[in-house]
Amino acid sequence: TTYTVGYLIGSLAKASINRKLAKALVKLAPPELEMREIPIGDLPLYSYDYDADYPEVARKFKQSIADVDAILFVTPEYNRSIPGALKNAIDWASRPWGQNSFARKPSGLIGTSPGAIGTAVAQQQLRGVLCFCNSPLMNTVEAYIQFKPGLIDDEGVVSNDDTAEFLRNYLSEYAQFVKRVLTVLPRGG
Ligand code: FNR
């Protein structure tokens, strides 16, 4: 069985190291995972004033989440928290009330930062948000990737073999997690 995974990159920066990490994950993913990006950069700032009539860009965003089996968040840490652009995207997806796109949708978290704790605090906060949004979250393996210069190039090639192996194992665990969740909660269930 193949599972479709929509990944959200929490950074809008052109030179984002988390985008590099996402590219590496696409390259290293096992064959049963079909990876596609769900872009968040064109969403306006959310307000519940939109709930009665979501703009096209937000409808498409929610549809992209509905279309995949699972979500993977690849996010930086900004000021020891979730980047605003990513939190905004999550708020859009969680509404209108009763149409929460994350409900029963399995998800995983990963992120990279030059700092030694590698986005751990942002991921911890994101866990709380996703629990509230009723997304079954992979508890372990956790992945806090410290980005040293040259670790991953623009094409997503990982220069360090141990890191590449760690990411491969992370994705393998993630694939098994998604399979387990979808066995209990079938698609659309
Ligand atoms: C950062 N950075 C950062 N790093 C970290 O490990 N913990 C943090 O709390 C913060 N805070 C923070 C705030 C803001 C506004 C910026 C712009 C940056 C540094 C950050 O990890 C670094 O810029 C990475 O390159 C961000 O990842 P992307 O956006 O390149 O994927």
Automatic annotation (TrEMBL):
What Gene Ontology molecular function terms does this protein carry?
FMN binding; oxidoreductase activity
The residue stretches assigned to a coiled coil in this entry are none
- Report the domain of life of the source organism: Bacteria
> What are the record keywords, sorted?
Flavoprotein, FMN
- A Pfam short name: FMN_red
List residues of the NADPH-dependent FMN reductase-like domain.
5-146
Q: Which cofactor does it need?
A: FMN
Any one GO CC term of this protein is: cytosol
InterPro entries the record matches? Flavoprotein-like_sf (IPR029039), FMN_Rdtase-like_dom (IPR005025), NAD(P)H-dep_reductase (IPR050712)
Q: Does the keyword Nucleotide-binding apply?
A: no
Designated name of the protein: NADPH:quinone oxidoreductase
Source organism (scientific name): Lysobacter dokdonensis DS-58
